[in-house]
Amino acid sequence: MDEDIDFTVTGMNMSKTFAARRLEIVNSSPSVQHLQERWPALLLEHQVCTEYQRITNQKLKTELYAALDSHTNSLLALA
User: Fold this and answer.
1) What secondary structure letter does DSSP report for 15?
2) I need a labelling partner for 28 at 20 to 30 A (CA). Which of 5, 20, 34, 75 fits?
């Protein structure tokens, strides 16, 4: 599926529609199914990371890995 996607064009379009998308999500709290139908690119890993960065100005994977690293000992103790 991802092989047929032009990530450059998708990224540009998602960037252009960010304000409208954010307004729609904040004002109407749509279901995940609605978001999937209306904004299917939001379910692509690349766009999840990009959208997170648009909102927080931080890189998702960097934040995730740092959080995992900070909890490694606790997580290992559960095993």
Assistant:
1) H
2) 5
Percent helix, percent strand, percent coil in the chain, to nearest 5: 80, 0, 20
pLDDT of 14: 94
**CA of residue 21 relative to chain centroid, distance:** 13
pLDDT higher at 62 or 79: 62
Residue in the block written with tokens 């709290």: 29
**Total residue count of the chain as it appears in this document:** 79
Integer Cα distance of 11 and 7 in angstroms? 6
Give every CB contact of residue 61 below 8 A, 6+ residues apart in sequence. Answer: 49
pTM of the model: 0.76
